[in-house]
Specification:
By secondary structure, the chain is α+β, with helices and mostly antiparallel strands. The chain has three helices and three strands, in the order αβββαα. It starts with a helix and ends in a 5-residue tail after the last helix. Pfam families: Sedlin_N.
Length: about 110
């Protein structure tokens, strides 16, 4: 599993550098589908401050649409921003926020 995540992060870097070379840096934060495999689909998002988010979805889940993935990234980004704006959070420390954990847990679906 980690091999395709590393490959996906390479794709993120390629997309960021390609956008940086284009006229005017009007970057779309949502990078779309980065790396589909037989088992998983990996989507990417990068913030203005170059923080990268990756969402991995089971390939058998055909009910999730692109706009829903975008919405998940927006929620994740907004929650992350709330954590970073907390004056009691030290950048670089692990995130210890029940609100952030709740957002992330709400996005995860366990099948079993």
């Amino acid at each position: 599993m980690s091999a395709f995540l590393h490959t996906s992060l390479d794709v993120v870097e390629e997309k960021i550098s390609a956008v940086g070379k284009s006229l005017g840096d009007q970057r779309e934060l949502y990078l779309g589908l980065l790396y589909p495999t037989e088992d998983y689909k990996v989507y990417g998002y990068v913030t203005n401050s170059k923080v990268k988010f990756v969402i991995v979805v089971d390939s058998s889940n055909t009910s999730l649409r692109d706009n829903e993935i975008r919405s998940m990234f927006r929620k994740l980004h907004n929650s992350f921003t709330d954590v970073m704006c907390n004056p009691f959070h030290n950048p670089g420390d692990p995130i210890q926020s029940k609100a952030f954990d709740g957002i992330v847990s709400g996005m995860m679906v366990q099948t079993g």
